[in-house]
Amino acid sequence: ALRNPDVDFRQIGEALSQDPVLSAKVLRVANSSFFGGQRAMASIDAAVALIGIQALNRLIVACGVTSSLAAVPGIDLRIFWRDAVVTATAASKLSPALAAEPDQAYLCGLLHATGHLILCRTYPEIADAMFTGFAPVRGAELVAIELEAFGIGHPQVGAIWAASLDFPPAVADAIGRSTLPLAEAAGPLDLALRSGCSLAEAVSRKDTVEAALASLTPRVGALFSAGGDQPNAAFQRLYDSLSAIEPTF
């Protein structure tokens, strides 16, 4: 229904009402402080109208992925989803300055490492042996381990999975390229996703805001610099907000 450009809120509300778990999560978001939270909303139709189609699409994708992958060998899901939400938020917030589409950037960030979940759930014994008890590994370093353990890396798996769900080709392609060397000619969505990943790693290390800015490519870092290695006020606010994120799903 969400992929139908002519769908209205009532059709989506009717579909949502058949799933009590999703309905509860949509109402929870609609009643949250992010959307005002000034009154208790109990109407699914009103909640859908308040949240909007694009944000609702992201919420349902996130709920669907998390509920289908509730426990995965070798992965601390609290850390995994915190990384995903920080990456998604950062990629979306940075995207206007990079000429990327914010909703596509958010989707890329949220789902860029889902291929790792799929691999670990598909091969639980290998995943348990390779990842349980070790510090989380990310990016190209994780791909190197996956290639040795599974014969394929999470970006390729994630791209195939995203394409199978009819996500925009640009999203699947960016996920598939997420750990490749970043060429000078990288597209806006690639830059947004890679920057989001860099900031998520900085948050996980508890880096200073100066170190977080330095983790970005020079091309991106220059857009958020107040001079030298000092971040501008907008980047300071962004990094502070990313550091405070804790996913609720």
Beta-strand portion reads under 5%
Determine the N-to-C terminus distance.
22 Å
Shape: globular
Extract low-pLDDT stretches: none
Instruction: Write down the Rg.
Output: 19 Å
- List the total number of helices: 15
> Can you list the strand order of the major beta sheet?
1-2
Question: Sheet with the most strands?
Answer: 2 strands, antiparallel
Q: Average the pLDDT over all residues and give the rounded result.
A: 86
Give the class from helix and strand content and strand pairing: mainly alpha
Task: Give the strand tally.
Answer: 2
Helical content band: 55-70%
The run of helices and strands is HHHHHHHHHHHHHHEEH
Describe the overall structure.
The chain has helices at residues 9-16, 20-30, 44-51, 53-68, 77-98, 102-111, 114-122, 124-131, 139-150, 154-164, 169-176, 188-205, 209-214, 218-221, 233-243, and strands at 225-227, 230-231. Helix 2 (20-30) crosses helix 3 and helix 6 crosses helix 12. It has a two-stranded antiparallel ribbon with strand order 1-2. With 249 residues, the chain is mostly helical. The chain has 15 helices and two strands.
